[in-house]
């Protein structure tokens, strides 16, 4: 009987259930990475319910731009650039120009940092805003600067970072529903993934925690001990593996949200 079991193994010395678990983990990981990256950075239109607030924000931005122009003609140096032309890069649906010092909402939409701050301050300073593009409640704003913008030092950059930190300190810790956690996954996992492999990204303690979580999930998936064994339940037996991967993704997003909140506090 033992010799028959050995003959039926695809790889000598390795159980077929281990290979199935490894294949399931690899397939799920590839699918998750593809889904996360395919979401990308969304630039979209303005939601009909947001058009009034966006129109008011555009008017304020235009007034600021005219004021800066008047000051510049008077010989003083403007401290902030408030009007941006569209040069084919990521566009801001508020000012309709290229996204400058861009920020990304937890729902994955990109705006100019100054446009988003103006939208927040002149709409509802005391509460979290809803995304102008999809009306999802914005609980987190993520910096999406270019390499040049990260390296440059300007009054506008410092002001945007300061206001974004204020926003994240106030609203990133609010209670979340399971649906909201799932909606935020693509954006937060993409940012966490990029920071995990960048030199100045996540702190080593958070990288260690994420590494331990991934390793534990991997060991469970290749283990012959399953809540729903594939040998008994067939394809349904993979449901517990999918559930473990989903829990892992949600917990990583929670850890990353904690990182952003800690940065906001330090800022």
What does this structure look like?
By secondary structure, the chain is mainly α. It has one domain. It has ten helices and three strands; from the N terminus they run αααββαβαααααα. It has helices at 2-8, 16-39, 51-73, 113-121, 147-151, 155-171, 178-196, 204-222, 230-233, 239-266; strands at 102-105, 110-112, 141-143. Strands 2-1-3 form a three-stranded antiparallel sheet. α6 crosses α10 (239-266), α7 crosses α10 and α8 packs antiparallel against α10 (239-266). It is elongated.
Write the SSE topology.
Layout: H1 2-8, H2 16-39, H3 51-73, E1 102-105, E2 110-112, H4 113-121, E3 141-143, H5 147-151, H6 155-171, H7 178-196, H8 204-222, H9 230-233, H10 239-266
Antiparallel strand pairs: 1-2, 1-3
Helix pairs in contact: 2-7, 6-10, 7-10, 8-10
Overview features:
10 helices; mainly alpha; disordered N terminus; 267 residues; three-stranded antiparallel β-sheet; elongated
What portion of residues is helical? 55-70%
List low-confidence stretches: 1-6, 76-88
State mean pLDDT (0 to 100 scale): 77
Secondary-structure class? mainly alpha
Strand order of the largest sheet: 2-1-3
The domain tally reads 1
Say how many strands there are.
Answer: 3
First CA to last CA: what distance?
66 Å
**Strand residue content:** under 5%
What is the assembly state of the chains in this entry? Answer: single chain
The number of helices is: 10
For the biggest sheet, the summary is: 3 strands, antiparallel
Shape: elongated
The H/E string reads HHHEEHEHHHHHH
| Radius of gyration over C-alpha positions, nearest whole angstrom | 24 Å
